Hints:
Elements: H1 2-33, H2 48-79, H3 84-100, H4 103-135, H5 143-174, H6 179-206, E1 209-210, H7 215-228, E2 235-238, E3 249-252, E4 259-263, H8 264-269, H9 272-287, H10 290-312, H11 316-320, H12 333-348, H13 352-373, H14 376-389, H15 398-404, H16 410-417, H17 421-426
Helix pairs in contact: 1-2, 1-12, 1-15, 2-4, 3-4, 4-5, 4-12, 5-6, 6-10, 7-9, 9-13, 9-14, 14-16
The structure holds zinc ion.
Amino acid sequence: MSSTWTLVFAIALIASLATRAWLAARQVRHVALHRDEVPLPFRASVPLEAHRKAADYTLAKARLGHWQMIFGAVVLLGWTLFGGLDALNTSIRDAMAPRWGGLAYEMALVAAFVAIGALLDLPFELYTTFRLEQRFGFNRMTWRLWVVDALKGLALGIVVGLPLLAAVLWIMAVTGAAWWLWAWAAWMAIVFAAQIVVPTLIAPLFNRFRELDDAPLRQRIQGLMQRAGFAAKGFFVMDGSRRSAHANAYFTGFGAARRIVFFDTLLKRLAPAEVEAVLAHEIGHFKLRHIRKRILAMAVLTLAFFALLGWLSTRAWFFTGLGVGPNLTAPNDALALLLMLLAMSPFAVFATPVVSGWSRRDEFEADAFACEQADGRDLAAALLKLHEDNASTLTPDPVYARFYYSHPPAMERLAALSDKPAPALAS
Ligand SMILES: [Zn+2]
């Protein structure tokens, strides 16, 4: 059984790498091929220079992604078949066993695993921020701010993450045979609490959120919110420009904590009517219950995850097949959890197109809602500015986009917004 499992895992890993490499190669070829010509519907509104920059940025990210994929595969094999997780587990377990068995050992194991993972990712993170983003003029992060962010993240991990981890592991240890059901319930409680705590308490640790100070624009926005039935106190402007020139807007939160956040970089670029149209799109996500749907989908998926974990954690082949010796005298919950997260990553690649397909459908729905509440031409103009400011390519490979894109490619999205995209965009 153990060697069959090794084989299944190895096949999934090879298949996932081959799929990702094939998609990346398609994307690179397609974007490079269309680099020197703005697609016809955008010719009046997108300068060639901006189009070329988007192509170069997309290609640079694809090249980095290629190395990241290879490195990730080596790390995954290092943890599993080459014995990394086993070595980490035995050294921590043996060092702590006599006096600190049980929960303390499990927490030390997870903390060490997370810390090593973060250190391994560090070179890519630094390269992305200070080289790639810098080169294309997007980075606004200083080294000082980067260090402050990292320390805040570490403090949050210790103050919030570790107690939550302890609670979940404790529940796994004391609730008997149905522990996976209890652990899932605890996890869902954390997810719900995060919907309230993250926007109101944690996000403000990293950014400033202020109300809009532009009075005429505020009036316009309040009119829209009233029409659409959305609480007017839920609109905030975030100082995204502290870290990056990328522009964006997002929706988050539950109940009284639900809010729509505009980056200051986006607000500065859009005309008042365009702000209104983008806001109408974000309100659409709430009105169409997209947050609720996503949490529900996640609840079902994590239930399946915990049920599978409950079963696998009692099978010796699950451990030995991936190069890990199960504990005989200490609890296996944390070890099984880490191994499960590692083992599922190649399989999860094949779920990507389903999840991104759902997401794109939500985006089309929110766009349709926005067209009822505001002018679709304003939304189209805003989306185009957003593409240009973020150097997002207008010519992605169709198969790549279908697999990965959480938002529809500009061409499809603008076509859906208007029967005649070209004149609408030129206006
Ligand atoms: Zn959206």
